[in-house]
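Model the whole thing, not chain by chain.
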Amino acid sequence: MVEMFKYALNLVLRRKLRTVLTSLGIMIAVMLMSFILFGMTDLKSALLSELTTRFKPQELYVSGQDSMSFGGMVNAPTKEGNKKEPKILTDDLKKQIEDIDGVISVEPLLIINGLELYLEGDDVPYPSKIVASSDLPGSNHMYKDFYGEKEILDDYDIFVSKFVVSFFETTNKDIMGKKILAKSTSSGMFFSSSSKSMIDKQYEFTIVGVVDTANDAFWINNNTALDILVDLGGYDSKQDYISTIGYSQLYVNTKEGMTKKVENYIDNDLDLFVISSDTILGFVDTLTAGLTLSLILFGSISALVASIGIINTMIMSIYEQTKEIGIIKAIGASNTQVLIIFLIQSALIGLFGGILGLSITFLIMKILDPFIVDALAKQGFLDISQFFHFQLGNALIIALSSILVGILAGIYPSMKAAKLDPVKALRYE
Amino acid sequence: MAYIEVKNLKRVYEMGKGLQVGALQGVNFNIKEGDFISVVGTSGSGKSTLLNILGGLDWGYTGKILIEGKDIKKYDPNYYRRYIVGTVFQQFYLIPSLSVEENILLPIKFQKRKDRDIEERLEYLIDMVGLNDRRKHLPKELSGGQAQRVAIARAMIDSPRIILADEPTGNLDSKTGMAILKLLEELNRVEKVTILLVTHDKEIAKFTKERITLVDGRNV
């Protein structure tokens, strides 16, 4: 068998260029499969770990409209969603939710968009123009991590995210007590430049804590947020704003075992948009399953195309090696031995593609990993230090699969070669 | 008892549409062990068909071929081609990517049992065919005569009892051809191997002790 392997290897090495070109299909399939095995599993666990830290199973997020933000992820609009009329999250609705059996607390959240945010003494604004508000303490798990001595935001106090600290190239300790200046701009989503007075507004906040939130980088309390929203929008009072625009979201904490019931009530009876941790986990599942499925699909198509390539190459080889097959049969090679020699050749092409694919994947992983880790960190996944995990066991499975694809593709050509009549083969020109 | 007995050997080829061509139409001959015999005939006389059958490449014949009294159909075809006969072709049929040594050892690759004396046998044959200084060369670096010597050594590596040589000098000039014939004669004398030399050239046939002449698929 060793001798036949050497002979088959010799045959493959005789056609180096063709071997490389044929194995490219396998290489692409292997690369796609490798990305699933070495990256997707960790992506899913990273997403789940991040989201389950921020969202507990008893919590619900309620919105009057069909779009809610989860650290940058926004639900796509659905036809189902469109059936619901957008509603204003008024104090009345908040009260109705508080009265539902099983609800522990309802915390309103507000969003102010369109403010340019500067750190005191720095003339470069922070890239995001969004300020969020909540009355939750800094120790709440929504913030994931908290640095600071004052957990409750007083009026015109502000929590900033780690990203803000890093953007202004300072430290948690140094940023504490500094001011954040918020200036209204004409480029904000909610405000136009039609009113000059609107552009000139400016607010000042004192940093009292650093939290671990990504996109929502600035947090003030609801009272201050309402002050600003009333001021910017020209409303008569906070009450006027709430009854006209409403809260952005309501953060509902429920009793254990009652969450589903509360969710159904808010969804069906109050006709509001509600998202639970189940929805979020389902979203992650769908997202990762979708990505995995597409990679598997493309991988399988590549493997299929690669198989056809191998079949084609092997059939070409038979024509080229017809005389040689005749010779080795004439000097004593059996049909089975010819079959094995051809199967070894196609297995070698598969293995070569596998090794090539794994090597390139390994290289790409090494190059891309820091960028992916960085990109994930920007999305708030700060605990991921390495995205791709090259595992020898999985690499071995991939290499063996490549050999298997090679062997399967080689069966028909090998049988064809084995059945060649030695007399005709020797006469073949 | 004759070493090789060929009795009423016939080979008919189906050409389709009911057309049949009788390449061999009842060939009979006996060969003694250690003979050096030529099979002579013009093109289409059935020489190559006879050689393919004796070489174990074509089993679609009727009649009987006995070697030491045993019907060759009772042998495993691969065993027969490895150990009973060795074939030398007009076109040498060397593997271009293998060296002289590797070409000679090629039949060994298809054997299950490994002969411990194979290295010794290789040295002996390389020495006999006079290619000691060419052992690492590729076929393209050899002359026609040298390539045929490699083919002869390859046919002899498993020490078969019969060598079938199909126009072994056909692609060589007369001087080189003569050297090849002398090499075959030496093998016949030293190794006591029975040799059947197929040729269309009556001058070459004179080199052998006996001749079998084929005309239209029959020996005369």
